[in-house]
């Protein structure tokens, strides 16, 4: 895989002095699906806008397909499709013209067969002769997607694509993302829905207060999610963990009234059966046992909290 988007030490300071991106670096590989997660105001849209060349970085460099997004804007932008959060369509224009015009804007020759297939994929074909103003909000979002795809971009940005959309559109959108992935299109999406990122992304990036806290393979994150904790309440408090239990990942909590055992659910064995036996052999009585699964959401919340002084 080769790198298609390179963000190098990018800082973005808005007029008024607010630093929305702090020395951000990121490499996006061709053909991958990257989900950017972050709380409101984290800088996700700012990052996307700078990559798309809509907002100029205060310092640093961004290249898309090797083209600098500032000095070689047209070549870089031609490779990019952007589905923004806000609906920014011409209300009196017809659907088909909106999409056709967008393709022409990038200097691509007319290709009605391609536009038909995009509109059909988005269940918009029967609306092709409708004016934008006559469409529902969900239909307008579909037009935004069609418009972004009309010039056959190699990198597609979806900014909060499923915020406030119905189940039908969500399903269509993920089917489309799947087809684009098969065609080798690189997809970057921002979302608040962690489960969504988990379902479709290859990698997950977590951004908070203008800083990328982590970019990690989803499978690795899932293996971290697979980490579970078992809380073992004891009948009597203990001053220390007996030496015979030293091989287990145990922590003494509540002044020795309980032990917490951390284990990996995806490992071949959890070690619970032998731990319970060894606890008994060490003469410890069990009052109660509870288990607690850490999820991607827990990891996300923990990381964001840790990064907030
Ligand atoms: N044009 C602007 N001028 C000044 N500040 C701005 C501007 N645009 C965004 N900001 C600020 O920059 C920060 C990052 O905003 P951004 O829209 O990038 O966040 P986000 O992660 O996309 O948030 P959300 O999830 O709410 O869409 C916010 O504090 C926002 O108020």
From TrEMBL:
PROSITE patterns linked: ABC_TRANSPORTER_1, ABC_TRANSPORTER_2
Matches recorded under InterPro entries: AAA+_ATPase (IPR003593), ABC_transporter-like_ATP-bd (IPR003439), ABC_transporter-like_CS (IPR017871), ABC_transporter_ATP-binding (IPR050763), P-loop_NTPase (IPR027417)
GO molecular function: ATP binding; ATP hydrolysis activity
Organism in which the protein naturally occurs: Boseongicola aestuarii
CDD domains per record: ABC_DR_subfamily_A
UniProt-listed SUPFAM superfamilies: P-loop containing nucleoside triphosphate hydrolases
Entry-linked PANTHER family: ABC TRANSPORTER ATP-BINDING PROTEIN (PTHR42711)
Pfam families membership: ABC_tran
Domain named ABC transporter: residues: 5-234
Protein name, as recorded: Putative ABC transporter ATP-binding protein YbhF
Record's keyword annotation contains Transport: yes
Record key words, sorted: ATP-binding, Nucleotide-binding, Transport
